[in-house]
Amino acid sequence: MHKIRSQYPILEKYTYLNTANHGLISQELMDYRINEMGKMRDQASLYTNTRNDFIDEVRIAIAQFVDATIENTAVIPNFSTGFNTLIEGIDKQSTFLLLDGDYPSVNWPVETRGFNCFYANINENLESNILEACELHQPDFFCFSVVQYISGIKIDLEFVKQLKDQFPEMVIIGDLTQYIGTEEFRFRESGLDIILASCYKWLNAGDGNAFICVKEQIKEVIKPTRIGYRSTKNVNDTIPEFIGRFEPGHQDMIAFGSLKLALEVALKIGLDKIQTELQHWSEIAKAEFKSRDLLDEAIVKRKQHSTIFNIKGSHDLYNKLLDHGVVTSLRGNGIRVSFSYFNNDKDLARLLEVLDL
């Protein structure tokens, strides 16, 4: 991991525990972007005319990374854009199950369109709360973040598979933004029907790139209406495919090239190694925070957790951490810290040192 850390100059200046806010830009990614910008400067349309074939390459890379079908995978600039396009194609009489306090970009697009919404509480009994709500309300759709952005609570994906078996007609939509890149994920084997994710966090892919993947049967349930020139892959007089509705207009080749590179880097490191490293940080950080009584009971009682923690603390503590070079975020009623695979023992030690001052 020392070699990996050398790719991120910021780690020489700060104890960076804020991947849940924004991932890092590696030197390799910076070099790639500079090189591609040079091509755009020197070649102009000779460069951008290759856009269609290149975006197809990116789409293939995404589909292989998450085990989705290529024809049902689209590139999108961010989660919110893709999710709003998706929600606009759903019948207004549909009912939704949401998590109370989930990421605003998940809940707001549903709530503001006037759908009838039900809610499950986010606590140590998350899965039981969801199952009870499904049995009670029989929602048409269930939308949620796989990892909660404030608390770091991670839903049991085996539970999601069982939920889909029990409610096969319910469409399950997952926001993978705080999850993708932390472990191997196989979409076709999952209980999820639709996945979307922005990739600037745990994949360290920079801004402006995201993706959506759907399962084939979803095309009969959701009818997105957005359209633009590239929705037909620049072929005139053709009927846009379902997935093309998420790709109107031109695509940012450099942003999506950055995503392709980020996927390659993650695979080169090895998702199994990344998962092992993150499990290590989840366990030891939780133990340290628990011993200092910094965690809510809901987190303490969960058997498994992500590497995102919300510890008890005020704005003053946040500023003290920053003054000592420890980068975190103010979220909810506390301070959110998040560990990535490039963090090391010194990073945790530094955090604890400042907390104990």
TrEMBL record:
GO terms for molecular function: lyase activity. Pfam families: Aminotran_5. InterPro entries: Aminotrans_V_dom, PyrdxlP-dep_Trfase, PyrdxlP-dep_Trfase_major, PyrdxlP-dep_Trfase_small. Keywords: Lyase, Pyridoxal phosphate. Residues 27-337 form the Aminotransferase class V domain. Transmembrane segments: none annotated. This is Selenocysteine lyase. It comes from Nonlabens ulvanivorans (Persicivirga ulvanivorans).
